[in-house]
Design goal:
alpha+beta, 18% helix, disordered C terminus
């Protein structure tokens, strides 16, 4: 019966390898939006879990909005499965429900992306904005920038 031991061991090893691993535990994700310049309007947040459709609202995994507050607001997004995600957010100061832009398409309201990603000739890629969610509670901070205010500040007070 000594000859059966390797066969039995091999069958047992294959059986154990065939058992699927338990899914990774979901983690609580909180997003803190920093640098709001005032408490007017609302803050909109979207979370994506894939590159396809990144920055398109209808492709977002989660869409949220809440009243703005001077300085920062916090979104508790609940339990999120481990993986890669990206966030885009904006401060809708005038409360019209839209992301306002200048006549040349430059953002006219505060805007931010996860991972410090920023616009150039368009929105950053999913990969530039992506961050990893693991199995532990996580807080992600996104700082807003107000491009038209930054441009005005660089030009100086006499140019307005």
């Amino acid at each position: 019966m000594r000859g059966l031991s390797p066969i039995v061991f091999g069958i047992a090893a294959i059986a154990v390898a065939a058992i699927p691993a338990p899914p990774a535990a979901a983690a609580a994700l909180t997003v803190v939006i920093d640098k709001l310049r005032n408490g007017r309007g609302t803050v909109h947040l979207a979370l994506w879990n894939r590159a396809e459709g990144f920055t398109e609202a209808d492709a977002a995994l989660i869409l949220r909005e809440q009243p703005a507050a001077p300085g920062q607001v916090r979104f508790d997004l609940g339990e999120i499965k481990p993986g890669y995600y990206a966030i885009a957010t904006f401060h809708d100061e005038n409360g019209n429900g839209e992301f306002d832009q200048t006549w040349i398409g430059w953002p006219d309201e505060g805007l931010g992306f996860s991972n410090g990603a920023w616009i150039s000739l368009g929105a950053p890629s999913f990969e530039e904005a992506a961050f990893e969610v693991g199995s532990k509670t996580q807080v992600v901070a996104v700082a807003l920038r107000y491009p038209t205010s930054e441009s005005a500040a660089r030009r100086g007070p006499d140019s307005q």
